[in-house]
Design goal:
The structure holds two protein chains of two kinds.
Chain A lengths: L3 E2 L9 E5 L9 E8 L2 E9 L6 H4 L5 H8 L7 H16 L5 H31 L5 H7 L1 H22 L8 E2 L2 E2 L5 H29 L6 E2 L3 E6 L10 E4 L3 E3 L5 H4 L19 E2 L2 H8 L5 H9 L12 H26 L15 E9 L2 E9 L5 E7 L1 H22 L4 H14 L4 H4 L10
Parallel strand pairs in A: 1-7, 8-11
Antiparallel strand pairs in A: 2-3, 3-4, 5-6, 8-9, 9-10, 12-13, 13-14
Helix pairs in contact in A: 2-3, 3-4, 4-6, 4-11, 5-6, 6-7, 7-11, 10-11, 12-13
Chain B lengths: L6 E6 L9 H15 L9 E7 L3 H8 L3 E8 L8 E4 L20 H11 L5 E7 L11 H4 L2 H14 L2
Parallel strand pairs in B: 1-2, 1-3, 3-5
Antiparallel strand pairs in B: 4-5
Helix pairs in contact in B: 2-3
The chains are: A alpha+beta, B alpha/beta.
Amino acid sequence: MSKTTAKRAAPAVSLEIRVPYVTRVEGHGNIVIDMKEGKLVTSHLEVVEPPRYFEAMIKGYSYSDIALITSRICGICSVGHQMTSLKATEKALGIPVSEQTVLLRKLLTYGATMQSHILHIYFLAAPDLLGVPSVVPLATSHPDVVKMALRMKKLSNDICDRLGGRTIHPNRLVPGGFTRLPSNGDLKWIRDMLANQMVPDAKASLEILKSLAGKFPAFERGTEYIGLRDEGEYAFYDGKIASTDTGLTPVDDYLSVTNEYVVPHSTSKHCKHARSSYFVGALGRFNNNFDKLNPMARSVADALGLKPVVKNPFLNTAVQLVETVHVVEESLKILDGMIAKGIREEKPAVPEKLREGRGAEATEVPRGILFHDYTYDNRGQVVKANCIIPTTQNTQSIDDDMTELVPWMIDQGMSKEQMTLTLEMLVRAYDPCISCSVHFLDVEFRE
Amino acid sequence: MTRDAPVSVIGVGNPERRDDGIGVLLVDDLREELASGAWSADGREVELVAAGPDSLLAAAHAADGRWVIIVDAARMGLEPGDCRMFGPAEARLSLHGDGLCPHAADLGETLGLLDVLGCGDRVRIMGIEAEDLGDGRGLSARLSARLPEMRARIKKEVGLLP
């Protein structure tokens, strides 16, 4: 993982690269690179998914339905969408939640983070590092590793199932709490499995990743890194918006950070803040929360040579392992406390009286910071909604990376085939959720 | 595999696409039966998993040494609501092989992975002929009417597994 900064001008070469439908990412996106006589004319990821219209879809629906509907935006980050949606609704309508609810939601968030990170590290990114097209050949050459990855994925899904009632799209979470609580036995089972299975598997994963460290392209491009920050802990569930460039911003002012705009080549909006683009995701969190890492996660970061500010976008995958270990440790801490106290029976809180209100909230989902913002009328029905998904925030950063990566690759003497693979690796390193990134487009027709 | 090894019933599909969600709905129903004691599975350990679009979970359960019954809507040329139980080797399911994506590891890819891992013989697939795969919740009337029969078929298969 040596450092090389891409600043040199490319030789006067002409190059055309087209990757229609990048594989091993969610959704459909195309890589388009055109260089003419050393001048980079085009370097971007074309998002070609149709708009989803979720914000329009939920208008008129009751506050009690919104989290269940919006969680369908994503099959991987469904837990994160539910959390963010519930928090925004509770803020808008003044619905209180108990400490126990918050702790259970954090456990669910951590389980979903483990699941997504493990899937990305082993099934989506590892084939690139090992030079194979997919996980299927890996199952032939490294069956024990693939079985371990499946075991880790199963446990992560089991955690979400036991706490939320479903492995994905949990159905026990409602505004104000849970419709059904896990048993003390569920908590003990999760604790034992994390301690006895996930921790050893995570340690084994560290050794695997260390052995592959030299396979990450040594490309760096410094940018603005954004993630939630909470003074009490490495932020996933709550916090203020933290930027490595500008410091803290309250979540209520998220629009001053996201600054969405449209570009001709993509159905996903793009975002920018202090620079032409910013990075959200594991690197965004790590670079803003390094001092809050738990001890084992910190030792994993040290073993991988990771310390802020990590400027190599390809290392987002390595940082995901650090975060996996962190959320395992964090889960164990929460579980120890909850098991000692025991689960307390409680019903979800309900609003004393429905009122007009607006609530904007943020949660860190595996791919980065996620915003939901709802305005309700006095019947508790949505009149306006806005959801800004991490991949929407990362699309311009991918484009900016490509703009510096292409001359860097030429400088490294890469073949066109190597450059194509490296560009695909770059997109996959962001772990993008491309179809989620395509949300409501404001359309104004000219009469 | 030892006799009476644990069984996982994995319901895949999207309940927001009418009959496509049949696997998830059946798993939810059986889960209630198991929790209430209406079904004991003769004391055998049974895990019921509403996997939605994540068919890769079936691979995770089979690789964990469990029997797996995947329940999914299918196009098999049968009458809507008709079911067929079969093993991976009995069906031709496409394996795209261009790399799993996190949302769309289709059944062909999942079974291909299990085959490579040597777990394919632990998997049974219950295909249910779908009628309506349009947008919206709720099954078509023809599938709805046969839910008790489908639940009974899954329970029977659990009992038949070694």
